[in-house]
Design goal:
With 222 residues, the protein is an alpha+beta fold. It contains 4 helices and 11 strands.
Amino acid sequence: MIVVYEDNHIIIVNKTTSEIVQGDKTGDIPLSEVVKQYIKKEYAKPGNVFLGVVHRLDRPVSGLVVFAKTSKALSRLNEMFRKGDVHKTYWAIVKTCPPTEEGDLVHYLVRNEKQNKSYAYDKEVKGAKKAVLHYRLIGHSDNYYLLEIDLKTGRHHQIRCQLAKIGCPIKGDLKYGFPRSNVDGGICLHARRVCFVHPVSKKLVDVVAPTPADNLWNSFVL
């Protein structure tokens, strides 16, 4: 975990592919607890530390996670995320070049709770939620393509599912059809940038997370 932005109300960290945002059945220490311990130690806070989780990243995904340090920021950020006032940009590495260099993807996603997986349909079906994203080809290496994704909606596994639907599963994402896993067990999806008006100070917060430090991410010609 690396802190990339912090003030009295908000802390934003760059998570690795191995970290979980909140506790789950694995029993692994969640990122939320790591951040709490950091705040407790950094500011010598006695007693329990308040930390609000306002959104999540899938465990195999790296990048920016926003937490609230006060109840005021938590309630306001929750509302901002709900209304789509927090703009998130992702980078994804895929093996197959998409059909066009830039475009909008519109699908209808159905979540299967048992499989922890979403399925994309071209037309509306029962129980489906509309999913919209914009992608742009921004780089390439010898064997892979780098896409920048602007999320318009926030659905379960949306980017992973929609890219797989057009034949471009994310590198390492076995669940959505990539043939091989990554060495670290993660997938090549990175929450690159987050931008929003601060819920308390009203100043613009615009943060970019460095990509994972490995040869593949470093190999792209942008």
